[in-house]
Write a structure and sequence with these properties.
It is a single chain. This protein has about 45 residues and is mainly α.
């Protein structure tokens, strides 16, 4: 791993869920950035 990368600890089920959303040559960084761009916390219900 290079100095410009990091790891994020997630459960195996979350990892699998994120992995299922990844398409083609898309990197995990690109996928997570797109997810963060679309995230609207005020619309999340718990």
């Amino acid at each position: 791993m290079t100095a410009d990368q990091t790891t994020i600890s997630v459960t195996p089920s979350v990892r699998d869920q994120i992995r299922s959303l990844k398409r083609g040559g898309q990197s995990y960084s690109e996928l997570l950035e797109a997810m963060a761009d679309q995230y609207q916390p005020e619309k999340v219900t718990q």
